[in-house]
Design brief:
Elements (H helix, E strand, L loop, with lengths): L1 H6 L15 H27 L6 H8 L7
Amino acid sequence: MLPKLRKLGFHIPQDIRYGYPNNSELNEITEVDSKRKSDFANLVETLSRAGFTVDEKFVEEQTGVKMKGR
């Protein structure tokens, strides 16, 4: 498709690529990421219940969820 557009006069650099995401791959990535975040949340909860303090910034970086103090 890109070569045809170039022939029609569109300026498209040669190193440009395009493609469509594979839904099953995206779903798998989402599932793995969700499981990782869930496992991390369980770890933080377990540590908190055991009396440890977990750095809020670290939790934000790992989960992408903004933390607010109590």
